[in-house]
């Protein structure tokens, strides 16, 4: 037991290597699938048989078998088979994979190990090959055939081209290589000038399919070399016919050939084809060509006896030829504008260049005269130009002019242009709608009076007036109620359109409209400006967008505003307005505002404008300033009143005399009595201080200078009073000066 346990790790590793070997092909297990190729969606049955003695490490214990379809586990049944084998059966009711691998697994040491594998494929029977065609190469006389393989069958499919003669058995003509759908049958298997039957066979694991059988003479599908055009010329002169001559390719001159000729002018959308030309003739005539026009000619041929499946040669190299010119024909469409100036008419005449069928060559110029050209003498020319417009002056009495075109071959018959006044009845209901990215449909109501023609004018709004001389057209149908404008129309541009009815003796007054052939969002939005702001309202203004950047009709302006505490609000403004007042704002608040311009095709936002509302309204500010002004004026009035009213000033600010400026302070006695002043000097060496000054009114009948008894009874002191008399009736200043101060 010890030796057996010691060898167990080695045996397990060896068994693992055996089990992991590719497909488990060492005889440990076998997987069978019935059938290995099935129609897509069919049932598939499989069986896995595990031989226990051949799977190292699985001799003891129960063998558990499981299945995996690619990486997805599927359930099967397990039973014990003969000879100690374990058998597991599996049925897949609907196999919906085009290709998959089915693995048989056993559990070993807790993991699933693959011990067997089978590949299953599913698909469809081969589809019928289509569009079989063959071409015989005259260089090596090999018949090259090609076809379309049809629907993918999801299975490996082989193709074989088979052929048979009138009395021979079917043989394999060729097998395509490299996945191509063509191959070449060699000359030795072909019967030239005899009917042969050719078809394609497609085969895969689920069946076989054949193409339609092609019954042809290999010579009928021979790829001939194209003929060579030798000469082209106009015959006779002044007709619309030409003659062509060609040479057949070498190796085809002995064959009866039928050929085709094709030609076109540079402006033609497609080739014109001429059939039924006999190849051996070598020449042919064809009529109906335009004068003075360059054409390209090509030719090809095939066997005349060939069936509809016969192969045409390639087209010959193009040969160009310009037909001879002829004098222009037809009438010119003309339109005019006239302004009186000093007894003359200033005329702007415009016309349309003739079409190629009427120009009969390259037009060299146009001539305008006052009278038609007569045989033998030319009319006086007032304008000779290579353009399609002319400005000139004619006498006011000249009511008509004559217009003609000329080329190298001659001059057209003159077109009479009557300079009618624009006084006729205008039309009603004019409108224009897009006809495409570069066209406009113009509609109007049928006129009440008979109309001979209509003239439409259009001008891009952003362009200079009168810049487009070709922006007009004439509708000759007097009963028309619509016309398509295509010349000079560009998307995202606004056009002014005018319509003139032409009556028998007058031109109608024009009616106008505007239109776009295509619209989009404006290139940019207007720039906002703050016009006025208060604590609850802000008035904004902007400049209308220029027509060049509108890209369509402005349908509305939308104003958006928001603050840090409120959500976004908006208001739609009529496109005819250029200002808007936002109401209901909060005082002293910052707002972000922007404008959006809209057309029927989109909208564009403008840049943001930041504004801050005020604390007070204008009326409140005015009231505040008025109140402050009134207070200031009141204070000034009071101050002036105080300055002018002495009594009030005395009451509020009493006048205190300055003792230094008093008369007593300035008075010096003439002679001092003999009075000892030593005591004063002894008491106070400095000057006496005056503390009180009393002004007394003198009484009538008393002599000044005599003291009252009360004053004589005063206690003795060193100083004595001084009295100064200024004159009769004047105040008497009296003071008593002492060392200890004044007393009065």
TrEMBL record:
- SMART domains from the xrefs? FN3
Fibronectin type-III domain boundaries: 328-426, 522-618
InterPro entries per UniProt:
FN3_dom, FN3_sf, Hematopoietin_rcpt_Gp130_CS, Ig-like_dom_sf, Ig-like_fold, IgC2-like_lig-bd, Type1_Cytokine_Rcpt_Type2
Signal sequence bounds: 1-29
For this protein, the parts annotated as crossing the membrane are: 623-642
Primary place of residence?
membrane
The question of whether tRNA-binding is a record keyword is answered with: no
Its placement in the membrane is given as: Single-pass type I membrane protein
The alphabetical list of record keywords is: Disulfide bond, Glycoprotein, Immunoglobulin domain, Membrane, Receptor, Repeat, Signal, Transmembrane, Transmembrane helix
Record-level Gene Ontology MF annotations = cytokine receptor activity
Which PROSITE patterns does the annotation name? FN3, HEMATOPO_REC_L_F2, PROKAR_LIPOPROTEIN
What is the protein's name according to its record?
CSF3R factor
């Amino acid at each position: 037991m010890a030796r057996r346990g010691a060898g167990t790790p080695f045996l397990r590793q060896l068994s693992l290597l055996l089990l992991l070997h590719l497909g488990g092909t060492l005889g440990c297990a076998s997987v069978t699938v019935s059938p290995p190729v099935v129609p897509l969606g069919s049932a598939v049955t499989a069986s896995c048989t595990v031989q226990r003695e051949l799977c190292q490490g699985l001799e003891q214990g129960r063998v558990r078998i499981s299945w995996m379809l690619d990486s997805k586990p599927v359930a099967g049944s397990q039973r014990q088979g003969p000879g100690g084998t374990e058998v597991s059966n599996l049925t897949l009711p609907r196999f919906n994979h085009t290709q998959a691998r089915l693995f048989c697994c056993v559990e070993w040491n807790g993991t699933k190990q693959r011990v067997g594998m089978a590949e299953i494929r599913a698909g469809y029977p081969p589809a019928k090959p289509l569009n079989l065609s063959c071409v015989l190469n005259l260089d090596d006389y090999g018949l090259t055939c090609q076809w379309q393989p049809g629907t993918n069958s999801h299975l490996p499919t082989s193709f074989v081209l088979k052929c048979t003669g009138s009395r021979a058995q079917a043989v394999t003509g060729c097998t395509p290589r490299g996945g191509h759908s063509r191959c070449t049958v060699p000359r030795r298997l072909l019967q030239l000038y005899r009917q042969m039957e050719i078809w394609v066979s497609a085969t895969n694991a689920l069946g076989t399919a054949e193409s339609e059988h092609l019954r042809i003479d290999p010579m009928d599908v021979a790829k001939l070399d194209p003929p060579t055009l030798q000469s082209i010329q106009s015959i006779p002169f002044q007709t619309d016919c030409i003659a062509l001559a060609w040479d057949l390719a070498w190796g085809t001159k002995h064959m009866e050939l039928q050929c085709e000729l094709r030609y076109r002018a540079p402006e033609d959308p497609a080739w014109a084809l001429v059939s039924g030309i006999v190849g051996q003739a070598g020449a042919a005539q064809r009529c109906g060509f335009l004068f003075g026009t360059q054409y390209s000619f090509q030719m090809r041929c095939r066997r005349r006896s060939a069936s509809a499946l016969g192969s045409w040669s390639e087209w010959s190299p193009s040969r160009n030829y310009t037909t001879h010119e002829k004098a222009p024909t037809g009438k010119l469409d003309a339109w005019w504008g006239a302004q009186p100036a000093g007894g003359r008419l200033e005329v702007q005449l415009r016309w349309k260049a003739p079409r190629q069928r009427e120009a009969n060559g390259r037009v060299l110029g146009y001539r305008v005269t006052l009278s038609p050209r007569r045989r033998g003498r030319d009319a006086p020319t007032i304008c000779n130009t290579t353009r399609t417009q002319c400005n000139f002056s004619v006498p006011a009495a000249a009511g008509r002019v004559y217009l003609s075109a000329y080329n190298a071959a001659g001059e057209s018959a003159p077109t009479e242009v009557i300079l009618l006044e624009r006084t006729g009845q205008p039309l009603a209901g004019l409108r224009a709608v897009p006809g495409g990215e570069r066209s406009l449909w113009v509609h109007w109501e049928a006129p009440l009076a008979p109309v001979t023609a209509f003239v439409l004018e259009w001008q891009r709004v952003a362009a200079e007036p009168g810049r487009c001389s070709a922006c007009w057209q004439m509708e000759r149908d007097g009963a028309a109620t619509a016309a398509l404008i295509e010349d000079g129309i560009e998307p995202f541009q606004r056009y002014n359109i005018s319509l003139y009815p032409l009556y028998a003796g007058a031109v109608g007054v024009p009616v106008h409209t505007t239109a776009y052939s295509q619209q989009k969002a404006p290139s940019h939005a207007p720039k906002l400006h703050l016009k006025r702001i208060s604590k609850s309202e802000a008035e904004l203004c902007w400049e209308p967008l220029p027509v060049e950047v509108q890209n369509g009709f402005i349908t509305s302006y939308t104003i958006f505003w928001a603050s840090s505490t409120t959500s976004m609000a908006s208001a739609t403004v009529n496109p005819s307005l250029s200002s808007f007042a936002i109401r209901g704002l909060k005082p002293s608040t910052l707002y972000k505002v922007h404008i959006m311009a809209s057309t029927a095709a989109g909208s564009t936002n403008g840049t943001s404008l930041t504004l801050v509302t005020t604390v007070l309204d204008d009326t409140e500010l005015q009231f505040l300033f008025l109140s402050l002004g009134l207070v200031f004026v009141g204070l000034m009035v009071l101050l002036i009143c105080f300055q002018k009213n002495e009594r009030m000033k005395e009451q509020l600010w009493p006048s205190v005399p300055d003792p230094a400026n008093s008369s007593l302070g300035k008075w010096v006695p003439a002679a001092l009595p003999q009075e000892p002043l030593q005591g004063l000097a002894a008491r106070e060496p400095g000057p006496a201080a005056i503390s009180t000054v009393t002004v007394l009114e003198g009484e009538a009948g008393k002599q000044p200078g005599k003291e009252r008894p009360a004053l004589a009874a005063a206690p003795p002191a060193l100083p004595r009073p001084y009295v100064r008399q200024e004159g009769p009736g004047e105040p008497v200043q009296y003071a008593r000066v002492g060392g200890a101060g004044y007393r009065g």
